[in-house]
Write a structure and sequence with these properties.
single chain, 5 helices
Length: 146
């Protein structure tokens, strides 16, 4: 008889189970390790109904040389070579025909920024994503853009 079918002692976890928000934030942090711009490691995941629908990290366009190989292309204190993680995730969803309307963005930023840049916030809002979570805060974009 399988030990899983009969009576078995209750397993006690040594650490508490992560909440959904904590779980997705940790995954965003892991995604950020794929970043190829040395200025910041940013990871973003789009979640809908507790399922990941797209991921993105900051880096060069597919097939283009990465900042880690040829350096950053700096203009006005921003790297022009790298696409931001948030835009990469939205582009990935669009590429595969996945709707992002009503999704939640989980974003990890290595530099400790409190949220996406203004341009990314505009793209996020235009795509129909109403909420993003960065570190420990959830931000409703309706409160930012009215």
């Amino acid at each position: 008889m399988s030990p899983y079918l009969g009576e078995s002692p209750v397993c006690e976890s040594k650490k508490p189970r992560l909440s959904w928000d904590e779980y997705f934030r940790e995954i965003a942090k892991l995604v950020s390790t794929r970043s190829t711009c040395p200025r910041a490691s940013v990871g973003a995941i789009l979640v809908k109904d507790k399922r990941i629908i797209a991921t993105g990290y900051n880096g060069a366009l597919p097939g283009e040389p990465h900042c880690t190989v040829i350096g950053c292309d700096m203009q006005d204190n921003h790297c022009q070579r790298a696409i931001h993680a948030e835009v990469n995730a939205i582009a990935q969803a669009a590429k595969f025909g996945v709707s992002v309307i009503g999704a939640v963005f989980y974003i990890y930023m290595s530099r400790g920024d409190i949220g996406p840049c203004r341009e990314c916030r505009k793209v996020i809002s235009a795509a129909g994503i109403g909420v993003y979570s960065c570190r420990t805060d959830r931000i409703n974009l309706g409160e930012i853009f009215g």
